[in-house]
Specification:
heterodimer; A: mainly alpha; 26 helices; globular; B: alpha+beta; Rieske Iron-sulfur Protein; 26% strand
Chain lengths: 687, 176
C-alpha cells in the first residue's frame, strides 16, 4: 500500500512465497514500518476501533445467520430461539445488536474527527469520499439488519423507509414495488433484505481496504494539520500505533460490554419485541438513535419529495466538503472561528437527534426546521465563508516543533470527549406514549434490577401459579417450554417437577398413523399451550382485542422516561420500565371512571393503560389465588409476583448475563490497565 | 531504549509485556469459547431428542417398521423363526464384525430386532428384507446385512448399531 517494501523474510520457505506474492512485505510496510505521525491524539484511535467493530459485526452476524430463519412466519421466533436455546445465543445476539450502535457511535466520532482536523482536505479527498461511501453502505446495512427480527418496528421501519422512494416522480411507485417484491412489505422483502444484509458488510470491508489504501498513499493527517517533514515527525506504526490502538480498543470494549451485559435493550425500542403486525402501526415510528438526525431533517420539510431529497442531501453534502471548505489551514486547532462553529454544528446534530425521537408536533416542528437550516448552513454558508474571511493562527513548522510547544490541553479534550460521548446517547429512544398514558408507573423495588440482580425464586413460583390460575385463561406463553421451569436461573424446579407439571397439560399432537389429531399429556419439551386455537378465536372471545402472548410482555411494554432521566438511566442501569408498567396496569383498574372521562362500551378504566380504556376486565382481586408460603394474598403481591415471573419468561438467561458481565468487566479493567502501562513503556522513548 | 532487555536479566518492561500478552491471550481464548459452543445442539434440539415409545402390537411377524428418533431411522423387525435361526447359526468368528445375535436383541424378546437403519459405510439408508442374508441391503455401495443387522458383505466396516431401548411391556418399547 505504500510502495515496494524491502522486507525479506529469513525463512527460505517464506522467501519462496514472498518472491511470488509479496504479501508479507505488504503487511510489513503497511502496518509495521509505516511511518505514523507522532502527535496523534486518541481521536485517531477510532479508525482501529471501527476495524475491530466491523470484524466483530461480521463474525457475530455470520454466526447468528447459522441460527436465523429469514421467513416472515418464522423470523421473530427464530430470533427468540437464538436468545433462549442456542448456547450463548443471548450473548451473540446482544453483541450484534449493541455492536451496531457501537459501530455507529465510533463512526460518528471518526467523521467528526475528520471534520475538525480537516482530514478531507487536499490530498485526502478520495480518502474522504470513500469514507462517505462506507457510511452510506453502513446505513443501508444497519437499516436492513433492523428489519430482520421482524418485530413491529422492523416491519414499519421497512415500510416507511421503502416508501421514501415513492417520492421519486413518475417512477416512484414502480421502484417501491421492485424493492418490496410484492404489493407491500412482506416475506419477499424480508428474504432479500437478509441476503443483502449478509452481503453488504463484505462490500464495506472491501471499501475499507480502499479507504486504508488511500490513507497510506496520502499519509495520515494529524492534530496540527502539518505534513510530516523529517524522521523526527513520525514513529513506526508497530509497536507505537498498534499498542496505542490496542489500549483504545480495550477502553472501548468497556463501553461495549456495559451495553451487552447490563443495558442490552437501552438503545432498542420495546415495540420490536412485538411480532410484526401489518394491521397495526405503532403510535410512534422511530428509527434507531443513529439515524435520528436524518429522520428529523426528513420530517422537517413539509413536502414529501423535498423531505427525501433533504435527508439524502444531508449525507451527500459531505462528498463536496473538500471543495466547500477551501481554507488552507487544515486543523481547527488553528482556526478560532471554525472551531466555534464546529462545536455549534455538533450541538445542532445532537439536537436534531433529540427532535427525531420526539413526536412531530408544536415547537418540535419549528425547532426541527430551524436546526435543519443550521445543518445545511454549516456546510453551504459557514465553511465557504470562513475559508474566505477567517484569519487562522500560525501553524507550527513541523510536528516535532508542535510537540515541544504542547501545553496541558489534554484534560480539556478529555472533558470534551466525555461530554460528547454522553451527549451522543441523547438519541436513545423516547417514545411519547407517556403523554397519552397519563401518570407514570411507580418504580418498584425488583430483585432482578441492577448489575447483581437475580430472580426471587419464591416469587417466580408464585408468579407461575398466578399465571396458571388467572392469566392463562386468555393469554398464551408460547415461547416457554415446560423444560425451562427446571433450567438454571429459573423458578428452580427439578427436572422431575417440571415433567410432572407438564403432564397436567393436554397437548394437541398428530397426525397419528390413522391421520387423526389427538391429545396427549404434556412433556418437558412441549411449550405452554395457548388458550385459543388461533388469533381470530382469541379476538372473538375477547370483545375484538386479542390478548397478547405474555412471553415477552415485560420487554415489549415501556413508557417514555423523558429528558434527563434517560441519561441517568445509562449510569444507574435502570431497565425496569417494562416490569414497572406491567405491574402498574395490573393494579391500575378503577371501578369508577373519573369525572369528564368517557370510555367506549365494553372497555374498562385503567389509570396506567395508554388511553385509559382497556379491553381486559380487572384480572386480579384480593384472595383470588391461594399462596401456600404465607405471602399476602393481595392484588399488589399478585402483580409483583406475576410480573417477576413474566420478566423471567422474557429473559430466562438474565442471571447468566449479569454474572458473565461481572467477570468480563473485572477482566477488561485489569486488561485496560495492563495495556495502558505497556503503551506508556512503548512510547517512553518517543516523547 | 532505556532498558536493554535480555534473557538472563528480565526487566520490568519484559514482565509487563509478558503479562499484557498473557492477559490478551487468555481473554482471546475465553472470548473464543461462545463462538465455538454455539455450534453445539441447542436446548430445543436436545429436548426434542427425548426418548420415544413405540407400540409393537400392530407389527406382524415378518414385518419391518421404520420409526424416527433423533432424526435417525430406526428399523424394528418382527423376525420370523427362520430369520432368528439363520442369525444364530452363523459362526460368530467368521463375521467381519463379530457379535453374537443374542447380544443384539433383548433376552425373551428374540423376535424383535431394533437397529439404527444407517449404513455404517457412508450413512445411506439400507432397505429392509433385501439382499442375500434375509436382512438389509444398502443400494448405495452394495453392503449387505443379515437378519441380525450384522455386516456380511460389501464395504461397510461394522454392524448396524443397536440404539438404547428397553421393553416397557411385552408390546411396547421405549427408545432412548
Amino acid at each position: 500500500m505504500s510502495g515496494p517494501s524491502d522486507f525479506q523474510p529469513s525463512n527460505p520457505a517464506l522467501q519462496w512465497i514472498e518472491r511470488r506474492l509479496p504479501i508479507m512485505g505488504l503487511v510489513h510496510s503497511s502496518f509495521v514500518v509505516y511511518p505514523t505521525p507522532r502527535n496523534l491524539n486518541y481521536w485517531w484511535t477510532f479508525g482501529a476501533i471501527l476495524s475491530f467493530m466491523l470484524g466483530m459485526q461480521i463474525l457475530t452476524g455470520v454466526i447468528l445467520a447459522m441460527h436465523y430463519t429469514p421467513h416472515a412466519d418464522l423470523a421473530f421466533k427464530s430470533v427468540e430461539l437464538i436468545v433462549r436455546d442456542v448456547n450463548y445465543g443471548w450473548l451473540l445476539r446482544n453483541m450484534h445488536a449493541c455492536g451496531a450502535s457501537m459501530f455507529f457511535f465510533a463512526v460518528y466520532v471518526h467523521m467528526l474527527r475528520g471534520l475538525y482536523y480537516g482530514s478531507y482536505k487536499e490530498p485526502r479527498e478520495v480518502l474522504w469520499i470513500l469514507g462517505v461511501i462506507i457510511y452510506l453502505l453502513m446505513m443501508a446495512t444497519g437499516f436492513m439488519g433492523y428489519v430482520l427480527p421482524w418485530g413491529q418496528m422492523s416491519f414499519w421501519g421497512a415500510t416507511v423507509i421503502t416508501n421514501l422512494f415513492s417520492a421519486i416522480p413518475y417512477f416512484g411507485e414502480s421502484i417501491v414495488t421492485l424493492l418490496w417484491g410484492g404489493y407491500s412489505v412482506g416475506n419477499p422483502t424480508l428474504n432479500r433484505f437478509f441476503s443483502l444484509h449478509y452481503l453488504l458488510p463484505f462490500v464495506i470491508a472491501g471499501v475499507v481496504v480502499l479507504h486504508v489504501w488511500a490513507l497510506h498513499v496520502a499519509g495520515q493527517n494529524n492534530p496540527d494539520g502539518v505534513e510530516p517533514k523529517t524522521e523526527k515527525d513520525t514513529v513506526p506504526f508497530t509497536p507505537h500505533a498498534t499498542i496505542k490502538d490496542g489500549f483504545g480498543v480495550a477502553c472501548f470494549l468497556l463501553l461495549y460490554a456495559w451495553f451487552i451485559f447490563y443495558m442490552p435493550n437501552y438503545l432498542g425500542d420495546a415495540d420490536n419485541y412485538i411480532p410484526a403486525n401489518p394491521g397495526v402501526t405503532p403510535p410512534h415510528i422511530v428509527p434507531e438513535w443513529y439515524y435520528l438526525p436524518f429522520y428529523a431533517i426528513l420530517r422537517s420539510i413539509p413536502n414529501k419529495l423535498a423531505g427525501v431529497i433533504g435527508m439524502f442531501s444531508a449525507i451527500i453534502v459531505l462528498v463536496f466538503l473538500p471543495w466547500l471548505d477551501s481554507a488552507k489551514t487544515r486543523s481547527s486547532k488553528y482556526r478560532p472561528l471554525a472551531k466555534q462553529f464546529f462545536w455549534i454544528f455538533v450541538a445542532v446534530c445532537i439536537l436534531l437527534g433529540y427532535l427525531g425521537a420526539q413526536p412531530p408536533e408544536g415547537i418540535y416542528v419549528i425547532a426541527g426546521r430551524v436546526l435543519t437550516v443550521c445543518y445545511f448552513a454549516y456546510f453551504l454558508i459557514v465553511l465557504p465563508l470562513l475559508s474566505r474571511i477567517e484569519t487562522p493562527r500560525p501553524v507550527p513548522n513541523s510536528i516535532s516543533e508542535a510537540i515541544l510547544a504542547k501545553s496541558g490541553k489534554a484534560a480539556a479534550s478529555i472533558a470534551v470527549a466525555l461530554v460528547a460521548a454522553s451527549a451522543l446517547f441523547l438519541g436513545s429512544l423516547q417514545d411519547a406514549r407517556a403523554e397519552e398514558g397519563g401518570p407514570k408507573p411507580p418504580a418498584n423495588k425488583w430483585s432482578f434490577a441492577g448489575p447483581f440482580g437475580t430472580y426471587d425464586r419464591a416469587a417466580l413460583q408464585r408468579g407461575l401459579k398466578v399465571y396458571k390460575e388467572v392469566c392463562s385463561n386468555c393469554h398464551g406463553l408460547s415461547y416457554i417450554a415446560f423444560r425451562n421451569l427446571a433450567e438454571a436461573g429459573g423458578p428452580g424446579y427439578s427436572v422431575a417437577q417440571a415433567a410432572a407439571f407438564a403432564s397436567d397439560y393436554k397437548i394437541k399432537d398428530g397426525p397419528n398413523d390413522q391421520g387423526d389429531m389427538f391429545e396427549r399429556a404434556g412433556r418437558p419439551a412441549d411449550y405452554f399451550p395457548s388458550p385459543f386455537p388461533n388469533e381470530q378465536a382469541a379476538r372473538a372471545a375477547n370483545g375484538g382485542a386479542a390478548p397478547p402472548d405474555l412471553s415477552l410482555i415485560t420487554k415489549a411494554r415501556s413508557y417514555g422516561r423523558g429528558f434527563p432521566w434517560f441519561i441517568f438511566d445509562f449510569f444507574t442501569q435502570y431497565q425496569e420500565q417494562g416490569p414497572d408498567y406491567v405491574s402498574a396496569v395490573l393494579q391500575g383498574f378503577e371501578d369508577k371512571v373519573p369525572e369528564g372521562v368517557t370510555i367506549p362500551e365494553g372497555s374498562y378504566y385503567n389509570k396506567y393503560f395508554p388511553g385509559h380504556a382497556i379491553k381486559m376486565p380487572k384480572p386480579l382481586s384480593d384472595g383470588q389465588v391461594t399462596y401456600d408460603d404465607g405471602s399476602p394474598a393481595t392484588v399488589a403481591q399478585y402483580a409483583k409476583d406475576v410480573t417477576t415471573f413474566l420478566m423471567w419468561t422474557a429473559e430466562p438467561h438474565m442471571e447468566a448475563r449479569k454474572r458473565l458481565g461481572f467477570q468480563v468487566f473485572i477482566f477488561l479493567i485489569i486488561f485496560a490497565f495492563l495495556m495502558y502501562f505497556t503503551k506508556k513503556k512503548v512510547w517512553a522513548d518517543s516523547h | 531504549m532505556t532498558t536493554a532487555s535480555s534473557a538472563d536479566h528480565p526487566t520490568r518492561r519484559d514482565f509487563l509485556f509478558v503479562a499484557t500478552g498473557a492477559a490478551a491471550a487468555v481473554g482471546g481464548a475465553a472470548a473464543l469459547w461462545p463462538f465455538i459452543s454455539q455450534m453445539n445442539p441447542d436446548a430445543s434440539t436436545i429436548a426434542a431428542g427425548a426418548p420415544i415409545e413405540v407400540d409393537l402390537s400392530p407389527v406382524a411377524e415378518g414385518q419391518d417398521i421404520k420409526v424416527f428418533w433423533r432424526g435417525k431411522p430406526i428399523y424394528i423387525s418382527h423376525r420370523t423363526k427362520k430369520q432368528i435361526d439363520e442369525a444364530r447359526a452363523v459362526p460368530v468368528a467368521s463375521l467381519p464384525d463379530p457379535q453374537p445375535d443374542d447380544a443384539r436383541v433383548k433376552a425373551g424378546h428374540e423376535q424383535w430386532l431394533v437397529v439404527i437403519g444407517i449404513c455404517t459405510h457412508l450413512g445411506c439408508i439400507p432397505i429392509a428384507h433385501e439382499g442375500n442374508y434375509d436382512g438389509f441391503f444398502c443400494p448405495c455401495h452394495g453392503s449387505q446385512y443379515d437378519s441380525s443387522g450384522r455386516i456380511r458383505q460389501g464395504p461397510a466396516p461394522a454392524n448396524l448399531p443397536v440404539p438404547p431401548y428397553n421393553f416397557v411391556s411385552d408390546t411396547k418399547i421405549q427408545i432412548g
